[in-house]
């Protein structure tokens, strides 16, 4: 049963999300927050599996709150809470900012209830979830990476770890990567964990950004 912290500065939206989750079997709401500062405090107190995070809020916004929540994880690769950004503003700027600070997914607020529930379960399972437009924006932005200094951590990755990172960047889950490379899911998970550790990344979503920024995902057939 995923435990969820609902964060939104609008009472009607916040209460509506809480009502939806409370009525759905298999979900537990552990708290509500009306701004980023309260979200950070409640995330530390309640340790939810997933935080439904609005972006534009007074004071500490959702991006800053996400960064602080993700930074507080004991194990960036496996530990919670995961942050699923749920906002009205489906723009490339917000997608990139959310990913860079460690959000695990990005959906717009007009997402159908059944898709939102599925998204929470997906993020809770350690996978990423993006709206189709958000994913297209990410791919388009990095389809032809500009020349840039190499990431200092890439040179420390083994050929297999680079291959795994490229497939993560292409949006494949651990199970899909395991099939693609004929490895066990546990082995793939270990490779992902090592990639994130060597690159000092706090979320799988940040690994996607790195893979696209430095052209790794574009090399995959």
The biggest beta sheet reads: 6 strands, parallel
Q: Proportion of β residues?
A: 5-15%
The number of distinct helices, counting runs of at least 4 residues, comes to 10
Any idea what the shape is?
globular
For the largest sheet, list the strands in their spatial order: 2-1-3-4-5-6
Protein topology:
Elements: E1 3-7, H1 11-23, E2 28-33, H2 36-46, E3 50-53, H3 62-71, E4 82-87, H4 92-100, E5 105-108, H5 113-124, E6 129-130, H6 132-141, H7 159-169, H8 174-181, H9 185-198, H10 204-213
Parallel strand pairs: 1-2, 1-3, 3-4, 4-5, 5-6
Helix pairs in contact: 2-3, 7-9, 7-10, 8-9
How would you describe the overall organization of this protein?
This protein is α/β, with parallel strands linked by helices and 221 residues long. The protein is 49% helix and 12% strand. The protein is built from 10 helices and 6 strands. It has helices spanning 11-23, 36-46, 62-71, 92-100, 113-124, 132-141, 159-169, 174-181, 185-198, 204-213; strands at 3-7, 28-33, 50-53, 82-87, 105-108, 129-130. A 6-stranded parallel beta sheet has the order 2-1-3-4-5-6, sandwiched between helices. Strand 1, helix 1 and strand 2 form a beta-alpha-beta unit.
Notable characteristics:
alpha/beta, six-stranded parallel beta sheet, 221 residues, 10 helices
Summarize the structure.
This protein is α/β, with parallel strands linked by helices. 49% of the residues lie in helices and 12% in strands.
């Amino acid at each position: 049963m995923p435990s969820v912290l609902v964060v939104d500065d609008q009472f009607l939206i916040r209460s509506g999300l809480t009502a939806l989750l409370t009525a759905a079997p298999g979900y537990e709401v552990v708290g509500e927050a009306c701004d980023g500062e309260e979200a950070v405090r409640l995330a530390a107190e309640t340790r939810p599996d997933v935080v439904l995070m609005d972006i534009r809020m007074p004071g500490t916004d959702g991006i800053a709150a996400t960064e602080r929540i993700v930074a507080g994880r004991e194990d960036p690769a496996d530990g919670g809470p995961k942050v699923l950004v749920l906002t009205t503003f489906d723009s490339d700027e917000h997608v990139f900012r959310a990913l860079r600070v460690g959000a695990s997914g990005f959906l717009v607020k007009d997402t159908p209830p059944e898709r939102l529930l599925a998204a929470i379960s997906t993020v809770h399972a350690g996978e990423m979830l993006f709206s189709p437009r958000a994913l297209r924006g990410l791919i388009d932005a990095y389809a032809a990476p500009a020349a840039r200094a190499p990431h200092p951590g890439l040179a420390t990755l083994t050929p297999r770890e680079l291959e795994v990172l490229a497939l993560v960047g292409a949006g494949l889950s651990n199970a899909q990567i395991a099939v693609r490379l004929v490895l066990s899911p546990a082995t793939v998970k270990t490779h992902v964990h090592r990639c994130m550790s060597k690159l000092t990344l706090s979320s799988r979503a940040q690994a996607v950004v790195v893979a696209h920024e430095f052209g790794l995902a574009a090399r995959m057939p």
